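DM from R.C. (forwarded with permission)

"hey, sorry to bug you on a friday — could you get me a structure for this? deadline for the figure draft is monday and I only need the backbone to look sensible"
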Amino acid sequence: MMENTARQFTEYAEPIPAPKPHVEPVPVPVAAPRHIAFSPLERLLSVCCGLAAVAMSLLFLTAQDTLASANRQYQDLQTQIVAENSHVDDYKQTIGELTNSARLSTFAKAHGLTVIEGNIKRVNQ
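My reply, with the result:
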């Protein structure tokens, strides 16, 4: 009976693995990358994409230059408008000074005339 028990135990027991020796990995030589040629369609698409990128860049630069030129013209026109408005204001002030009733009275007395306010017509702007 003892033999049977020992046999059964050894039958079901797992074998103990032997320790594995430490092996350093050997570097695998890397093959040089192979050159894969472009097909004619790929070449045509590459050229078309390059030309499209150059065209878009030129279009962008042209638009930017046109916008800068238009902005400069707008600023010049605004400057001219401000200058003309200043001249108009100066002329209005001159008209106001020339039509001042005190000035007219002084001028009339200097030349021996009298000013009748009812005969003076005012122009409203």
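R.C.: lifesaver. The mean pLDDT is 83.
me: no worries. The first helix runs from residue 2 to 12.
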